[in-house]
């Protein structure tokens, strides 16, 4: 990462659906493409705000639990002459913490993460914004594009108390940020609004925010949307491939997440065409390759498959992948790159979301050590 005093925004625009089945993450053993079938609901695909002990051992992360908080949510729409218009959001701070100065005074790379569990009585849209910087003027009024990596994630959890609905109300987001050598300050804010013309409320039930230092090796994102599972399109894809790293030795850890949109119904979205009203199922896993001096791949390892079924009511979902640990014992290649393999298995087509209009990588991968 470049050495600079960075304002980095983490944005999660999450629509909270009011009915039916949510996106349900599944865990399955590592298998060849198209092999395994979903095997039950995982308690959590990965805790995006919990530091990974395999990354940067000995480094001190900053973790702040989120207080339970009920926030008034304003009407999301106002109707003028029969036309509905979106009402801009109003943000409330839910986490605010300092990141200490680095030991050598040099800028440091961090993973800024947030995990939210929310409860809503009616259909909602939820925006979550986070960033790190050194000056109060900047973090009170962040530049809309940020400086560095920006993340936007769309997820549709539903209200209620059933196990299925509870699983869907976990919201995750991560971004790779630069913190100046003198340290910085990080803020997480949320803005709930209803998906109608009446006001309501949203309750933060649980969660945490964190800044976790890392030794970044390489990172990648997806520059353009990819569609899988539709006739005439591939059933699988390799996305968010990172550049080949510089020479690296020792143990490594690959990370990643994919932003998914299920195609359904008569409407169109991105690459989606009108289709049946049904769910879409895919699995995804990390891929880590070692390359020799000629640039030829000489060793490949695969992470655990994570399955997800996205219903029409959920529509958007984030799938956080299990870290892929490389012990650094490969007998060939001292350069690496990572990517994410996505395989459609059933149902309607699925769109893999790319870098958004705020320069945010909705689907991203990286390697650290």
Main attributes of the structure:
369 residues, mainly beta, Jelly Rolls, 2 domains, six-stranded antiparallel beta sheet, 2 helices, disordered N terminus
Characterization of the model:
Strands 14, 15, 17, 21, 22, 24 and 25 form a seven-stranded antiparallel β-sheet that branches. Strands 2, 16, 18, 19, 20 and 23 form a six-stranded antiparallel β-sheet that branches. This protein has a five-stranded mixed β-sheet with strand order 7-12-9-1-10. With 369 residues, the chain is an all-beta fold. It folds into two domains: 202 residues, Jelly Rolls (Sandwich), CATH 2.60.120; 155 residues, icosahedral virus (Jelly Rolls, Sandwich), CATH 2.60.120. The chain is built from two helices and 25 strands.
């Amino acid at each position: 990462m470049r050495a600079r005093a960075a304002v980095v925004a983490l944005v999660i625009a999450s629509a909270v659906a009011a009915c039916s089945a949510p996106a349900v993450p599944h865990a399955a053993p590592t298998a060849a493409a198209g092999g395994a079938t979903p095997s039950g609901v995982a308690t959590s695909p990965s805790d995006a705000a919990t530091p990974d002990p395999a990354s940067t051992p000995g480094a001190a992360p900053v973790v702040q639990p989120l207080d339970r908080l009920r926030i008034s949510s304003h009407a999301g729409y106002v109707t003028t002459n029969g036309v509905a218009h979106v009402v801009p959001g109003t943000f409330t701070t839910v986490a605010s913490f300092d990141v200490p100065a680095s030991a050598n005074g040099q800028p440091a790379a961090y993973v800024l993460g947030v995990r939210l569990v929310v409860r809503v009585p009616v259909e909602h849209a939820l925006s979550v914004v986070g960033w790190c910087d050194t000056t109060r003027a900047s973090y009170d009024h962040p530049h809309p594009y940020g400086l560095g990596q920006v993340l936007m994630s769309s997820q549709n959890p539903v209200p209620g108390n059933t196990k299925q609905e509870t699983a869907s109300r976990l919201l995750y987001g991560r971004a790779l940020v630069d913190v100046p050598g003198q340290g910085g300050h990080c803020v997480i804010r949320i803005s709930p609004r209803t998906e109608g013309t009446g006001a309501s409320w949203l309750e933060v039930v649980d969660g945490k925010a964190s800044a976790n230092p890392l030794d970044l090796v390489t990172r990648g994102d997806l520059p353009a949307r990819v569609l899988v599972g539709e006739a005439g399109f591939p059933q699988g894809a390799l996305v968010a491939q990172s550049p080949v790293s510089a020479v690296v030795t020792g143990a490594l850890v690959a990370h990643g997440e994919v932003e998914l949109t299920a195609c359904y119904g008569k409407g169109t979205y991105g690459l989606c065409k009108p289709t049946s009203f049904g769910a879409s199922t895919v699995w995804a896993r990390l891929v880590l390759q070692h390359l020799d001096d000629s640039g030829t791949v000489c060793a490949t390892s695969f992470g655990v498959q994570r399955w997800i079924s996205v219903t029409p009511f959920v529509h958007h979902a984030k799938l956080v992948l299990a870290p892929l640990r490389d012990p650094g014992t490969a007998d060939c290649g001292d350069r690496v790159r990572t990517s994410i393999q996505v395989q459609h298995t059933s149902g309607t087509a699925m769109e893999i979301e790319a870098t958004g209009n705020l320069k945010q990588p909705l689907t991203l991968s990286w390697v650290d050590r």
